[in-house]
Structure formats: C-alpha cells, structure tokens
Amino acid sequence: MAINNKRRLLLAGAGAGGLAITAAAVIAQTQERVIKVVAKKFDFTPGEIRLKKNQPVTLEFTTLDVVMGFALPEFGLRADILPGTTARIRFTPDKVGQFPFHCDIFCGSGHESMTGTVIVS
Question: 99: Cβ–Cβ under 8 A, 6 or more apart, which residues?
Fold first, then answer.
C-alpha cells in the first residue's frame, strides 16, 4: 500500500511538472515583443531595431511633433504616424539580415536623413 501511494505521488509530481513546463513554453511562444519607436524631426528612436527571425513583434509608433511615416520596404511594411496617436505594425520577420527603414512622409528639411536599420538574426 505504501509503495502505491509513493508511486501515485511520484506520478502526480511528474505530471504537474510536465504541465508547468508545457504551460511555460506556450506562454513564451505567445508573448509577443513590443518595441516602442518614437519619431521626431528627423530621427527615429531607436534607430536600430534588433529582432529574431520567426519571432512575432509589434512596433508601436508615436511622434512628438508632425505627421511622419515609417516604411520598411524589404518586409512590405509601412505606417502613418500621427501626433497624439499610436500606430502599430505587427509582423514576424522571416529572413535574416540588415534592412533599412525610413520616413516616407516629407516632414521638413532634413527628412532625407530620417532612417534606421532593422537587424534580424
């Protein structure tokens, strides 16, 4: 009788441990990384965004001054960034490399230097 109880406890413990590991793996897979990007004349902060291939990410954009644009042509992504609002782009990078992004709405003299890089590893 005592051996059966020990087996039951051992099996119950192993089962609970397995469930905890599975739950942690599911939560880790479903948690999406959110990166806040601030656009201001004539800069994106951060100017370099590091991502992992096949890991979903949401980019959240705000602007401190005027209407801006965000374009990441290699992934076919773009967003209008309006003062007082938050624009979001959700995507999963499917290739490795360095990809330039830029503002695609003329925001004044200096607009052409408003660039950055997405680095996917």
Answer: 72, 74, 75, 117, 118, 119, 120
DSSP-derived pairing of the beta strands 97-102 and 115-120: antiparallel
Q: Is there a cis peptide before residue 46, judged by omega within 30 degrees of 0?
A: yes
Q: pLDDT digit string (tens) for 27-56? A: 555 678 999 999 999 999 999 999 999 999
State both tokens at 104.
């695609």
Q: Report how far apart the first and last C-alpha atoms of the chain are (Å, whole number).
A: 56
**pTM of whole model > 0.85?**
no
How big is the chain, counted in residues?
A: 121
Q: Burial of 38 by CB count in 10 Å (0-12 exposed, 13-18 middle, 19+ buried)?
A: middle
